[in-house]
Amino acid sequence: MVDITLRRATAEDSKRLTRLVRTSSAYAGEYAAMVSGYQVGGSYIEHHPVYVAVDQDDRVLGFYALLLDEAELDLAFVSDEAQGRGIGRLLMEHMVAEGRAAGLTSIRVVAHPPAEEFYLRTGARRTGTIHPTGGIHWARPELRFDLTAAADAADADADAADADAAAADAPAAADADAA
């Protein structure tokens, strides 16, 4: 298995992240116009939480950008070569943790239509549709990661596990008292 490191992106990553966006096969065909001139600039990287997944040779496998003021996932890409290896899930788990650490209660995603299923599998729920506007000629799914529900569910699971452990210890404690 390839070692994967998730780190904060730097301005020096700008060209590699831009290349990943522009060469993504997810944006082929009718979607190509969306990314043809797109640039992930150094100042953008320095002003927003942008995290990059790299392998042991520092090859970019994927990245995401979170806009904290808007509580919105702005960019998320996984290289074509790294698809299906869990990189996207790793990035979304990290994004959720970063959002919680920043005090967000949810994170909005306006998704690329073919990516909707991925976001649903990683915990987002569909909240609406963004209709075509300007240079975008297709409807886009609007989704949301609810950070409070996931946190509450994790806490409930931990509490249940603690209760099960306490119940399992109770007969042993009673036996010890009887002896």
Strand composition percent = 15-25%
Distance between the termini: 52 Å
Helical run tally: 6
Structural class call reads: alpha+beta
Largest sheet, order of strands side by side?
Answer: 1-2-3-4-5-7-6
Oligomeric state of the chains in view: single chain
User: Average pLDDT, to the nearest integer?
Assistant: 86
Regions with pLDDT < 50 over 5+ consecutive residues? 165-179
Cα shape: globular
Total strands: the figure is 7
Element order, helices and strands?
A: EHHHEEEHEHEEH
Taking the sheet with the most strands, its summary is: 7 strands, mixed
The amount of helix comes to: 40-55%
Specify Rg, calculated over alpha carbons: 21 Å
Ordered list of secondary-structure elements with their pairings:
Elements: E1 4-8, H1 14-23, H2 32-35, H3 42-47, E2 50-55, E3 60-67, E4 72-78, H4 87-101, E5 106-110, H5 116-121, E6 125-130, E7 140-146, H6 147-178
Parallel strand pairs: 4-5
Antiparallel strand pairs: 1-2, 2-3, 3-4, 5-7, 6-7
Can you tell me about this structure?
This protein is an alpha+beta fold and 179 residues long. 41% of the residues lie in helices and 25% in strands. It has six helices and seven strands; from the N terminus they run E-H-H-H-E-E-E-H-E-H-E-E-H. Strands 1-2-3-4-5-7-6 form a seven-stranded mixed beta sheet. The C terminus is likely disordered.
